[in-house]
Structure formats: structure tokens, C-alpha cells
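Structure ticket #2291
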Amino acid sequence: MKFLLKLVLTAVAVLLLAEILPGVAINNYVSAIIVALVLAILNAIVKPVLVVLTLPATILTLGLFLLVINAAIILMADYFIGGFDVSGWFWALIFSVLLSVFQSILHSILKKD
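Resolution: structure written out below.
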């Protein structure tokens, strides 16, 4: 149940960010839920592999390279989902940072309840 609630909250955050950011577009609510689901899958499967493979770069940049990995995950989701469009690396980076902030705020509200 908690996973579904987090999925819906992520979809809401994706919709809000698509309205705010001019470089990100989403077609409808169903696409937002699919984006949230695909991001959850990519973060669970692909991201740990990328983190391990790029560990030296992450250490050299004091963890800032993780932002590039997050942007790559967003661009992968853009590639897989037809109703979701991100204009480039810059918008993917901004989108991933803001999505992380929104998710942490929404999930902290969820933990308090």
C-alpha cells in the first residue's frame, strides 16, 4: 500500500515539474504514473550498477557525479516512455534535482502520518 502511495506522490511531483519546467513535457496523468513506475524500476535496477561502475568518478567529484547518473536515469525514462519528453541533459539534471527535493518533502510528510 505504501509503495502505491509513493508511486502516486511521485506521479504528482512529475506532473508539477512538467508544468513548471519548460524543457519537460508530459501528455497526461497515465503517462505520469508510468513515468513514476519506470523511474522506480530504473532506480532499483540500473542505478546501483551505474553507481558501482562510476565509483572512481563519484569519489573524485565528492559525490557530484551522482547528479549526472540521476540525469541519465531521467533520460532513459524519456527514451522508454512515449508521453514523456525531456529536452536535454540540462533539463534532465534540473528535473532530477527538483524531483528529489519534491520526493523527500512528500515522503517526509508521509512518514509523519
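Closing remark: The two ends are 14 Å apart (CA to CA).
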